[in-house]
Amino acid sequence: MKTLILFFFFLCYSSFSNNFTENLLNISSNNEDDNKIHSVFVQILNASVEQAVNKASSKNGFYSNPSIKIPFPESTNKIKSKLIALGLKKQIEEFEYKMNVTAEKASADALNIFLQEIKNLKASNIKKIIDGDKDKATQYLQKNCYTYLYDSFLPIVSKKLENENVVNLWGMLLNRYNNLPFVKKIEFDLYDYVTNKTIEGIFVLMTKYEKNIRHNSKSSKSDNIKIFF
Asked: Phi and psi dihedrals of 32, rounded to 5?
């Protein structure tokens, strides 16, 4: 009973629903075990990531979305201003655009990676999170599976960066800056930067879609999701 009550807080933001409470009590009286919680948890994550990946991998899915658009590396902004002064604004804009195209194309390969990691989640681990931090589903995946996702995603992003000629373009811009007199030479891991930004962007979208799934639970095709709301 304690677990199910805490799961109620896990799924809702701050408001209480009489209908939800009745459903929750019915589940408790039917002796539903932790596997039920695990099933709903996984369904929410699966639905969220599928929608997020579809959105991110659509045409200009990153570049045209301010909430996930990948900017010129913040830690190297002094490079940007110097290069613009040298007349390289067009090349900088091309670099920024192609970074986002890379993230967009890499996202298309992200779905299976996310779904596999979600599939590997254990009911016991989910129960601990529900009973403890009461994190939302997306937050749990981000906190507990990020390293795996990064390691799996890095080679995909790296290949896309090379295919889109982003690596060469960045190398040219970096060399132009580093060859300027009296400047401290800059080193920057572009592969790491774009990989992290791509994953972060997908999680931003997942958070949005998870919220929509909970809000629109009555229209869900899943009876398991409906009954928890």
From this structure: -70, 135
